[in-house]
Amino acid sequence: MLSTPFVDLPPLQSAGGTVTLPGSKSISNRVLLLSALCQGTTTLHDVLESDDTRVMLTALRTLGCSITQTGNSVTIEGLGSQPTHTQVKLFMGNAGTAIRPLTAALALMGGSYELSGVPRMHERPIGDLVDALRQLGCQIDYTGKDGYPPLHIGQPQLKLDAPIQVRGDVSSQFLTALLMALPLVAKQDIVIDVVGELISRPYIEITLNLLARFGIRIQRDGWQRFTVPANSQYQSPGTLFVEADASSASYFIALGAIATGATASKTIKILGLGADSIQGDIRFIEAAQAMGAKVVSGANWLEVSQGSWPLKAIDLDCNHIPDAAMTLAVMALYAKGTTSLRNIASWRVKETDRIAAMACELRKLGATVVEGADFIQVTPPATASDWKAATIHTYDDHRVAMCFALAAFNPAGLPVRIEDPKCVAKTFPDYFEALFSLVQTEPQHIPVLCVDGPTASGKGTLAAQLASQLGYHLLDSGALYRITALAASQAGLMLDISGEAAIANLAANLEIEFKDDQILLSGVDVTAQIRLEATGMLASQISALPKVREALVALQHSFQRVPGLVADGRDMGTVIFPDATLKVFLTASAEQRAQRRYKQLISKGNAATLDSLRADLEARDARDMSRSASPLKPAQDAKLLDNSDLSVDASVDLVLNWWQSKQPF
Question: Scanning 112, 256, 477, 632, which has the fewest C-beta atoms within 10 Å of its C-beta?
Fold first, then answer.
C-alpha cells in the first residue's frame, strides 16, 4: 500500500489485463457483526482487509468476541444476545458501516459504552438513528454536538409495542442498523416505518439478503414499512463467502471504457464479481454501458472494453448507485456533452461533502461544473489544450482518490498528482498497485530520478529514501551483477566465456525487486547472500562478459515502470537513462566516505583502519573514472550534491525540492 504524502501519475495511454477485487466493505462489515450476534461459530471467507473492517474487528474483540484470522478468512465465536464486556470505549475511526449498526445493537443490549471516531466521524449525522432508538426506550447521550458522535450508550428500558419511525432520506445505514439490531429483542413483531424517500435502496437489499442468510426474514411493504417477525433468532450459516466489492469494480469498469481502445485486443477482466451480484452498485455497469463501455459478464467475472469514443454524456438518477456514481463524474471528463448526476444528496454526508469535493477537483482539471443540493453537472474541457495539470486533494476520502486516478488518461498528456494516496486503505489498500499493474504508457512519459556517485557516497541510502518518499520503484544497479552471479551460480552455469550466452539469457529474465531494505530474487530475500565477498568475486567474473553487460542494460531499462523510478549507480544519468527528469551526482570526499564505511564496519564487528579504507576508495575512484566503458562522471545536466556535511534527511529534502521544481503542479 502506498503511504507517501502524494503519488504522481504520469500521462497514461492504455490498459489491459486482469484484476482481482477485494471483498465488499458493505458485506464484510455486515457479516462480521451478524456473525458476532449469533450463537456458535461462523467462518467468513474473502473478508475485505481494510481500515473499516479492522475497526469493526477491533470493536468486536473489545466486546469479548473470540476471533481467529487466517489471511482473508475470519472465524468468529458469536456473542449471542449479550457482549462479554459491557463497559468499554470503542474507537470507530471514520467507519460509518461500523458505528451505526453497532450503536443500534449495543443500545438494545445495554451496558455502558462510549463510541467515538476521527474528527470527520464527529461531523457525520447519526441523530435520526438515535431518535429512532430512543423511541424504543434506549438510553443514548451525545457527549459532543447533538446529532453527531461521540455517544454514550446506557441501559435501555425497552418499549416495543409501537411502530418505530426513522428517516430514510439522509442515509440508508440508519435503517440497516435497526434491521440488524432488532432481531435481538423481537419477542413480538416490530414495525419500522420509513419517513421520507428511502435513498440507497440497493444497500437495504444487501442487508435483507444477508439477514436471510442468518435466519432473519424481514417482511417488507414497499420501501416504507419493514417488519421484524416475532421470535426472530439469529442462526449462523456456518460458512459464508464475501463477494468482491462492486463499488471498487466501478474504477476498473471505467478504466476499460476509457483506456482499452488503442489496441482492439485489450480488455480489463475483473475477477470476484458477476452481473448477478447482490450489491446495488453492480448496476454501475448499466450506466457505464450507456456512456459507451462494452461489458461481458460470466460466473464471478466481468470483462470490459471500449465501445463508443468519445464517451456519451448521460443524465441519470443515481439514487441506486450513490458510491459508484462518483466514478461517473470522472468518466464525464471523457464524454461529449454535459453529464448530469441527480438524486445524490447522500454525497453531502459521506466521508466528506462529496458534491463539493468532486466539483472543486473536477474544476482543477479544466472541467465546467454546476453543483446543487442533490446534483452535479460536468462538462469536460473543450479541447486537449484546455486540460490542466492538477493536484487532487482527497479529503481523506478513498473514493475521491480512486476515481481521480482515471484523470491521468487525459488527452493533453498531463500528469496528475493524488494527495494522501493511503486513504484508499478504507476499502482497497492495494488500489494503486492494482491500477499500475494494468496501465501502460510510453517510457518517455515515466519519470526517472537518477542518483550517481562514487563508492560509499551514500547514493544507495539516498535513492531508497527518495523512492520511498515518491512511491516510485527503486533500482540498485550496483546489485545487479551480484544478483546475476548468484543466480547463475545457483543454476550451475559456467561463469566464463563458455557460459556467456546462458548467463545473458538468465539475466534478461530475472525477477528482481528492491523493497524495504530487501533485495528479492523471484520473491526470495537474497540481501545477505549478494553482500558476501564470494558473491562479489563471482560478479567480477561475469562483469567482463559483453553479452551479460548488454542483457543487464536491458534489465535496468525494464525497471522504468509506472508511476516512476529512482535509479542509483555510476552511469544511470550518463548511459542508462540519459533523458531522466532529474540527475543527481554525489560528490562526498574520500575522507568522509572512508569515515562512513569505517563506522559501518566497526558497528558490525569487522576490523578496519581509516587509512586503508581511504586508500581503497581513492583507488576505486581512479579505476571507475578511467574505465573505457561508462566511466564514472556526472552527466552534463546533473545536479552536483556534496553531502560530506549533510545528513541523509537534509540530502533527501534538497533533492525533493529539486524534483518538485521540475513538476507542473
Answer: 112
Cell 473489545 -> residue: 62
Q: Three-class SS of residue 452? A: strand
Q: What is the CA radius of gyration of the chain?
A: 29
Closest CA to 434 of 421, 448, 416, 417: 421
Cell of 424: 484508499
Three-state helix/strand/coil letters over 135-154: HCCCCEEECCCCCCCCEEEC
Residue 464, C-alpha cell as written in the block? 531508497
Query: Measured between alpha carbons, how far is 350 from 3 in angstroms, rounded to an integer?
Result: 23
Half-sphere exposure at residue 305, Cβ-oriented, CA atoms within 13 angstroms? 11
CB 581 within 8 A of CB 662: yes
pLDDT tens for 173-190 read: 999 999 999 999 999 999
Handedness of CA 411, 416, 418, 424 (dihedral sign): positive
For residue 209, what is its C-alpha cell?
439478503
Instruction: Give the residue numbers annotated as catalytic, written as ranges.
Output: 323
Cα–Cα distance measured from residue 571 to residue 450, given in angstroms and rounded to the nearest whole number:
9
pLDDT digits (tens, 9 = 90+) for 427-466: 999 999 999 999 999 999 999 999 999 887 889 999 999 9
Q: DSSP string covering 304-323, please? A: EEE-SSSEEP-EEE-TT-TT
Most confident listed range (311-325, 447-461, 526-540) = 311-325
Record the cell numbers describing residue 662, joined without a space. 521540475
Domains and CATH numbers, the chain: 6-20+246-440 (3.65.10.10), 25-241 (3.65.10.10), 446-469+565-665 (3.40.50.300), 473-562 (3.40.50.300)
Give the Cα separation of 502 and 35 in Å (integer). 57
